[in-house]
Amino acid sequence: MSAKTRRAAWCAAVFLSALVCAFLLFLPQWLDKPLLFLGAERYTFYSQSASSQAKITSASPEEAALVRLTLQNYTGESARFADAADAFSQAEKYGAELVLEQKSADVHDYYYYTPRLAGGVVLGGMRVNLHVAVRGQSASVGYPLIFGGY
Predict the structure, then answer these.
(1) Suppose 50 and one of 55, 64, 75, 76 were both cysteines; which one would form an S-S bond, judging by CB atoms 3.0 to 4.6 Å apart?
(2) pLDDT tens, 133-144?
């Protein structure tokens, strides 16, 4: 084996070792980023800001886990369900307590708080961190709030 071949093999081994180390370093962080809401027909992720100024990234159910896994500066997410009962079941899953209810035009908003989800926002003097918006038979559920259209 020539010196040039040995050097190339050594560089490749060092590169692969560094790649494996980086993967192992970030793996625990990636695995700790599950979707908050399962079984939705569409997902929306928020990043950069925990307000309506957030960067919005949409994903299909098939790509949602990967999008969530790789999103930088994650601040929240929402999920759309064809059946409103499925959205409400997400609030039940987190043991959320209803703190505020509002109706505007054709949307009925339900604002919840659960200690099982971190953070939240103050709305109407109450801390909320889970939002269900119902329109017709369908609904969206979001953390901490739903931003963008629903």
Answers:
(1) 75
(2) 999 999 999 999
